[in-house]
């Protein structure tokens, strides 16, 4: 009998524990719960942590995250107002603010992500299409930093923007929240993660940048060659001037030396008639040496001064 009573007590205890487990549930600090009965919500959502009670077997609990959740959009090809196709990659932070409404409209978080894709991607397309690409990539007007001569040739000026990237993000978030609030969702933050040209436009932009740099390089090269030619011309002109001045100076020095030598010779040979005759003879011999060679022919008259010593030799 004692064994049977013990078994009955254990069975009844197990049943009681099972019924208790079915009648209670625990809500974590990061969770919020909607209780349904036969598929319909019962009462308000449970948002405070702790142990809660429900009708076992009849009522069901549905848990939803209370924390900030992440939405990461797919990169989409979007046309801007100025007809430039760009890839826009976005992300957002969102939160379930009304669990009861969320359960009624979305049922679960997977459906919410699908709905957020439609809302955020759609509003992103709408607002990007309403603005030029400069408005989507820049947040403020600023004075560009000069890139030097090359920058001046390309153009350092920036187009003035009136809205800007931050304002577009804010407008997308506001418009998306208007649609999301009826789902029990609040979009807390929305940002452009990356904006870039599509591949075809990237190629065109890179080619234009390369051709612009080549044009500047050719211009610099042409100016350098012109400057080199000018410098070489000045160098040749200065060199000729220096050589000419040096030749002039050398000839002046040589002339002065010859004059001084002639003066010394004259003083030396002008003392007697014999010395004058010797000087005349030596000068004539120098003249003969410089004038005649094996290929030279000369015709002289017999009374020529130049023939005097030759006639004596004959």
Give a verbal description of the structure.
With 314 residues, this protein is of the alpha+beta class. 55% of the residues lie in helices and 18% in strands. It has helices at residues 2-23, 99-105, 109-129, 133-137, 148-154, 165-180, 199-269, 273-291, 308-313, and strands at 24-27, 31-37, 40-41, 50-53, 59-65, 69-72, 76-79, 85-96, 185-197. The strands form 3 sheets. Strands 6, 7, 8 and 9 form a 4-stranded antiparallel sheet that branches. Strands 3-2-5 form a 3-stranded antiparallel sheet. The protein has a two-stranded antiparallel ribbon with strand order 1-4. α3 (109-129) crosses α6 and α7 (199-269) runs antiparallel to α8. The radius of gyration is 54 Å and the shape is rod-shaped. The N and C termini lie far apart (182 Å). The relative contact order is 0.07. The model has no long low-confidence stretch (mean pLDDT 82).
Query: What proportion of the residues form beta strands (DSSP E)?
Result: 15-25%
What is the overall shape? rod-shaped
Radius of gyration: 54 Å
The tally of helices reads: 9
List low-pLDDT spans: none
Count the strands? Answer: 9
Q: Considering DSSP H and I runs of 4 or more, what fraction of the residues is helical?
A: 55-70%
Overall pLDDT level: 82
Order of helices and strands: HEEEEEEEEHHHHHEHHH
| Structural category | alpha+beta
Distance between the termini: 182 Å
Tell me about the biggest sheet?
4 strands, antiparallel
């Amino acid at each position: 009998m004692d064994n049977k009573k013990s078994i009955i007590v254990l069975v009844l205890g197990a049943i009681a524990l099972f019924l208790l487990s079915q009648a209670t549930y625990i809500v974590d600090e990061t969770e919020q719960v909607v209780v349904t009965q036969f598929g319909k919500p019962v009462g308000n959502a449970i948002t405070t942590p702790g142990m809660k009670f429900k009708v076992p077997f009849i009522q069901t609990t549905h848990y939803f995250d209370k924390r900030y959740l992440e939405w990461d959009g797919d990169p989409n090809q979007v046309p801007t107002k100025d007809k430039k196709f760009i890839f826009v990659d976005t992300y957002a932070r969102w939160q379930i603010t009304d669990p009861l409404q969320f359960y009624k409209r979305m049922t679960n978080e997977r459906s919410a992500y699908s709905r957020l894709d439609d809302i955020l991607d759609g509003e992103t397309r709408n607002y990007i299409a309403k603005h030029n690409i400069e408005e989507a990539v820049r947040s403020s007007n600023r004075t560009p930093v000069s890139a030097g001569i090359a920058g001046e040739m390309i153009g350092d000026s920036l187009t003035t923007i009136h809205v800007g990237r931050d304002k577009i993000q804010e407008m997308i978030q506001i418009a998306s929240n208007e649609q999301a609030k009826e789902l029990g969702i609040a979009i807390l933050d929305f940002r452009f993660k990356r904006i870039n040209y599509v591949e075809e436009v990237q190629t065109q932009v890179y080619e234009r940048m390369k051709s612009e740099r080549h044009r500047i390089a050719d211009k610099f090269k042409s100016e350098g060659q012109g400057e080199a030619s000018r410098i070489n011309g000045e160098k040749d002109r200065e060199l000729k001037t220096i050589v000419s001045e040096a030749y002039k100076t050398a000839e002046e020095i040589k002339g002065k030396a010859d004059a001084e030598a002639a003066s010394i010779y004259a003083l030396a040979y002008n003392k007697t008639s014999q010395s004058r005759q010797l000087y005349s003879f030596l000068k004539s011999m120098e003249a003969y040496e410089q004038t005649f060679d094996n290929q030279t022919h000369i015709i002289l008259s017999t009374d020529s001064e130049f023939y005097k010593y030759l006639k004596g030799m004959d």
